[in-house]
Structure prediction request, 576 residues.
Amino acid sequence: MKRREFIIKAALTGAFIAVPKIYSSNKNNKNIKVGNSLRFPPELQAGESLIYKTVNMEVWPGTTTQVLALNNSYPGPTIRVKRGDNFSVLFENQHIIESTVHWHGLLVPELMDGQPKDAVLPGTSYTYSFPVTQRAGTYFYHSHAHHYTAEQVYKGHAGFFIIEDENESQLGLPSGEFDIPLLIQDRHSVYKPQFTYSPGNMDIMQGYLGDLPLINGTPEAYFEVQKTLYRFRILNGSNARVYKLALSDNSSFWVIGTDGGLKDEAVEVNNLFLSPGERVEILYDFSPFNLGESINLVSQSFSGPGSQGDQMNLLRFDVVGSGVSGGNIPQSLPAINYYDINSSKRIRTFTLTHTMTSGDGMHRINGLTYDLGRIDETIPFNELEEWKFVNDTSNLHPMHVHGVMFQVYARNGNTHLSPNDKGWKDTVLVNPNETVQVLVKFTDYSGIYLLHCHNLEHEDDGMMLNIKINQPTSVKEDNILPEKFELHQNYPNPFNPSTTIRYSIPVVEAKFESTTNVTLKVYDELGKEVSILVNEVKQPGNYEVIFNAFNLPSGVYYYKLKVGSFTKTRKMLLLK
Ligand code: C2O
Ligand code: CU
Ligand code: CU
Prediction:
């Protein structure tokens, strides 16, 4: 990972040592400005850990704010990787409460997903490591601690995870100092300069809506631009606030990317909605402006509950230079294969409600509040499904799914989608009394993942379900039916905490009829059964299953495959 020059420059000159600026009406005087120069977090270097703890930082000039920082930075360091890399980082929790790092939008194995059940306890650490296999794009990492997600994100646990690839870099899009990540979060002026998190009942209902926008942790932010085209990667990292993004003169901009990377075309718009957890990539051209002019990125007002929908100034652009070229608006972008709703195997409906009873949470999905130990939906691997999010409330619910990128199909039956709905998504805003249909297919990992509202107050209040993706029914690339009964050595071995076991059920032996029951069980050294991995009727074929031993101690284990009256056993070693 190579730190970009402009980041170094920004870190040395701008970030966190901002000096109070006095307002001047003379637009051309570059030395006297109101506000604070937009900050950029440092980039995480290969081999560096993520150390999570409380630190005092200068968010507002001349005062200090207690933040939950990663590597002494808020926002957390920007992680920039190439598609195909193996990403690995040691997360050290030096905070007094459990935490996790969830890689929002990234397709990673269950135990790398940073779910509430896989908490990293105070004073302990955990290595997250996974191959980066998905599309280039703008992703997000943040805490997903059980009941503490909202507070920890609010206090600082959030950052960018950017994936780049060769194809994207050949498109001539603005890059380097013209490719700018913008994290939007809101804070409460009544508690300034602290990030006090104390939601009341009303805030749990509507979300903890602040009135002070911070951009990359910068209050009253401004950013100096050249008269050229810029790419902005915008991430709504707010707990609950939805923004209606626009420019203050209502000029148009181009939408080029959604949650899961580039769209298949650049689409010109004047505004768009961005809800918590969502990302959008846009191009904006500053060349029509004169030097010395300014323009604001704003959130336009819209009608929403409480202060949701209030007008806000987010970021001021000061046009200060010319004579450089950031890049071009692409004439064409790589195609996206859209799912066909007619190939959907089934419909799943998720009804969103809130009730006024207190105690076990007001927010529910299909009448349920979150239970760490309960599986709410079992979903076959690699089968297209239509999901319906039915919002029976007067609140906005950005619905997010882990472990998959989906496609929006329709809003209230209308399949004519806005450009930021169309493309690869992991979070979709479901407006009051709206039904949103999405098409979902889990193609990457099996295991337990989450479906929840990304209004973090709603999430912590239990608006979340466990979904279990069934294991692949056969090894993908292997269409040839096996000739012999086989139980392979697990890999990796030794392992911690999960390993893959492959086995084959042959077609030749008459005993292995299609009605044969197959079991695969794990025993400890003393012969005690500790896990049943498979217990079902299976067709001849090659199979694999992942064994998770996160709740078992180190030691020797045996796994035994039984097909009809045939058995085979192998040994494996768990080393923690
Ligand atoms: Cu961004 Cu489950 O979260
Ligand atoms: Cu997520
Ligand atoms: Cu919600």
Summary: Residues 1-28 have pLDDT under 50 and may be disordered.
